[in-house]
Structure formats: structure tokens, C-alpha cells
Amino acid sequence: MSFRIGIDLMGGDKAPTEVIRGIRRYLDQASEPAELHLFGDWDAAKPLLDQESIPEAAYQFHPTKEVIGMQEHPTRALKEKPDSSLSKGFQLLAGGQIDSFLSAGNTGAMLVGSLFSIQALEGVLRPTMGTVMPKLNGGTGLILDVGLNADCKPEHLNQFATMGTVYARHILEIKQPKVGLLNVGEEEGKGNLLAQATYPLLKENTSINFVGNIEGRDLMSDKADVMVCEGFTGNILLKMAESLYDMAQHTGIQHPFLDRFHFENYGGTPVLGVRKPVIVGHGISGSLAFSNMIRLAEQMLRTDILTKMADEIAGTRKITQ
Amino acid sequence: MSFRIGIDLMGGDKAPTEVIRGIRRYLDQASEPAELHLFGDWDAAKPLLDQESIPEAAYQFHPTKEVIGMQEHPTRALKEKPDSSLSKGFQLLAGGQIDSFLSAGNTGAMLVGSLFSIQALEGVLRPTMGTVMPKLNGGTGLILDVGLNADCKPEHLNQFATMGTVYARHILEIKQPKVGLLNVGEEEGKGNLLAQATYPLLKENTSINFVGNIEGRDLMSDKADVMVCEGFTGNILLKMAESLYDMAQHTGIQHPFLDRFHFENYGGTPVLGVRKPVIVGHGISGSLAFSNMIRLAEQMLRTDILTKMADEIAGTRKITQ
Q1: Could you tell me the pTM of the whole model?
Q2: Has residue B318 been placed in a domain?
Q3: Which residues of A touch B237 (CB under 8 A)?
């Protein structure tokens, strides 16, 4: 069966041009491409689709008239613009006509759509969003949450650890991902109240390989693969990490390691813990990012990662109850 | 009047050699050197003092027999080792025989000593510790808290903003320091519960020049000079920033901007909000760091910064009550 991947052609600063170029890149690399469902303005998209020689057989087009702007209020925009590419995508995702949806548009609207159009996986208290973090040894870590949940409880962080582990295993292909609790010191008992209360839960969580506390200096090291924190700290770290690429540009430093902080190349970040793969792209995503987002959606579907996540969450709950 | 600055000769990984070399550097640069009070093992220190040609007139020696190790439990060590260089320093600071104390020894013991041997400034709810943050434009910002207070309330962050402003004005010599609240978005109303509740307090604080929320990407920018957050996030950011220097070493990147993240050169960070200047040095401080720590203590005494801080705190309290 071919997976049906929904793509918002109108989302992102460089839409629709770069989205369609990204589709071209994806098609060039895919041996058995997924069934692409494109949402957007037909008149704007058609010439670009032709220009990139995207065959009509490669996609189904869902014409929409409205566009949700990057600065619009998420909930209001989704409600008031049902005929926007972003709203329509979620409608079809919720209705089962597509299997996954991706957009580099209004992040807030993507999150609201993920949380309310489609539901959380059974047992998941709070869906989360992570971001990859380049390691000095060439590997890749995952930090979560990076902003979906600014205030968290220990049991939320514990579930992030489980979901992050499943993601790291099946998408980052790390066999036995090491889980670290981001904290202010190495020893058990260190930290703010949240970290102190989270540590024992992680220690008892049999779905993960908990290696203890990690510190800010360990983010680029190999100490942990999955790094867990609440979304306030995580979001600030993510944006600081992103700024390292800007720092390199500004200072003229050229080095492949710093290039890896150019996050818009990665192709967006999935919302974890909802029933279907939703990929949220960076506003300034280019064609490489879009092709990577399509591949990520495909990979998440192919590995059936959400079922695996639900199973692990169910297992964790059974043990902790 | 000459200021009396206490120096722990035994604190730090490279003590006492680098401490004494740092004293030499300080004396070489000072036109009217402060009165130095040295705490430590006389037999270990004497040959080094001679080797560095430190004249006997430049210091008073307070011989101590014990040393508090870097890994010892702070409260217990201070209690059980009253004849250690670190304990003795705080005893004389509390007793008024010295005006300031600095050490690169056990950080926890330095903090416990600061909080319990000498008291908080009147009206200060929670003393704090900040760290400087290099800016891309060549300037220097200040982040606080960076670990003294892992859990905070809005009124704590509000006082950190006031104390940070006084420090930035008189020590970093920024005339009208811009204060930013570290947050996950720019707009008022963004953030976790703490940040949301802190924003209005900062807005009403007439002792500071509040410029609104700043994000992780703004840390190295000129958006704010004083960046306020709780000590959990701040500590992780500090250690991540420190690791940028290690990253440069590891990858072989050479650039003056990254050299500025070599924090042990800065010469320690003061505890703000206590009645006397206490400077906490980095464990791996070298002679440059120690000479800078002495100069910082001197500068804090010369500018009478703690009185200014107490005045501003009193003003803020009057307004908010």
C-alpha cells in the first residue's frame, strides 16, 4: 500500500516555490514515491508544478482559496479559514483520506491542528515536539520537549522520554538510545523540583535506557541520545542552538559542524504522541527541508512508529500503575 | 582607605600555584594595590610567594591547616573544617576584618558561606549569581540567575533584574542596561506560568529599562544587556555556552569570538544580593582568572555597588508595595 502524504503548498516564507522544488527533489530520490496530496492555490501552483515537471500522476490536488498567515492567531485562523491549505489538510487527515500532513506554515496553527483535529495516542498525557541536536562525534541527539509544553509535570517528562526513545530507535536508528535528564548537576537529587521528581520516574521506566542527569555542557556530547526537559528550557536551548549557525555566518567561521546547526535543512520536526504523523517545518524551509519532511513522514509511516509509541506508553502505564 | 581583599590560596584545581601567579599579575597592574589577605597553608605558599617575588608588605597571611575538597558536601565541610582556608575567609569576612572574599574552591561551600556567614542585603529575597555572555557586536551581556535558585517566583526574577541592572551599570559600564525576560516567544503573554507572571512585574519596575521578552536566539545579540531567568534554565545555558569553547577546541575552529566563551579567563562571578562582595571562581581558573577576580572585588568595593543595589531594591519594594 502506498502512503498518502498531505503537503501544504502555501506554508512557509518561500512557499509555494520551494515546496514544489522540494517535491521535485523527493521524487528524484524516491524509488517508490508516496501518493502526494497537495493543498493550495491551483493557479499559483500549476505553473510551478509544470516548471518542475511534476507529473500529474504523482499527486492529487486539493485546491484551497485561503491562506493562514505566519502571524495569525492559530485557533481563530483555523476556525475562520476552513478553506485554507492548512485547515483542509487537517480535515482530510482527521477524515482518513490522507495518512500524514506536513507544513512549514503557522507553527501555532499546526500544533492546534495536531492536538484538536486528530487526537493524542491512547495514554499520552501531552503530545510533544523534539528537535535533533548535532553531536561532536558526528552522531545526532534528540531534545524534547522544545516548546509545545512550557509547564510540565514529572509524568509528562517521563512520557517524553519513552516517546523520544521510540523515535530515536526507529527514525534516528540508534539501537539502544541513552536517555538523559537535563539538569543542573550530575548527581541524583540535583535540580529544581520538577527534575528532582522526574528522576525516580525515569529510573523506574523500563521502556528506556536511563543514564542519569546530563548538564548543559553535555548537549553536543555522546552522553545521552534522548535529552528530556520541559518545553521552556528546551525551546530556549533550541533557539540558542539555531543561533550558532547565524553566529558562524556573522563571524565568518566556516566549519561542517556548525553547518549542522542550520536547522531548516533538517526538514521539520514531528509532533510526537498524536495518532498520525504531523511534521512541522521551519518557516524559512527551502527545497531540501521540504524533501526531507516528505521522507520523514514516509519513514514514520513505514516504521509504523506511532503504533510502537502507543505500545510503549501502554507498557509504561501498566508498570507505573 | 585601602580595601581588604581575602583570597583563598587553596581553592581551585591549580591552587596554590596559579592563585599566587594571579596575585603577581594583579600587583603588576595595580597602581594602588588593595590590602591582600591570604588564606592557606603557609609551608605550601611561602616558596611560591618568594618565587613570584610577592613582597611581604603586600599581604597579610592567615595560616590554615585544612582544605575543603572540590567534591565535599558544602554545609558539612564548612562546619567540620573551621580551620580551612575557605571557612576562615568567611569567618573574617563576617567579622569585618576583610571587606571581600574570593575563591575558586568548592562552589557549593562558597554559596553556603555567602548565604549563611554573611547575610542577604536588606530586602533581597534571594541572592543570585550571574554570568557574562559575549555578544557578537563585541559587547557583554549578563544572564542571571545561573544556578543559585533552581526554582523561582516572579518577585525573585524581578529582583534579579534590578540587581543585574546595577551590576551592568557599574561593573560592565553599560549606562542604561536593557533588561530582557528570557522566554519562548516575543509577545507579552508568552511563556510558562513563571514567565507570564514575571512580565508585568518587570514592566512596572522603575529601577530597570525593560525591553520585553527575548528568546534563545537573542543571547549573543544586542537585544538585551541583562537577561533574566530562573537558575535551572540559566545554569543549563551557562554550561552550554561554556561548552562552545570546548567545541572550538575539539573541532579546531579558531576565532576570537569563541575564545570569549573561555569563561575561566573572566575571573569568576559574584554572588549578588549579599552584604559583602564574594567572588566565586571557576574550578580550573588560571592566573589571569585570579587577577581578574581580585580586580572585580576591588571594583565592586570602589563603586560601592552593594549599597547601590540595596537602594534600588528598597525603591522597587516601595513601589510594588
Answers
A1: 0.92
A2: no
A3: 216, 236-237, 240
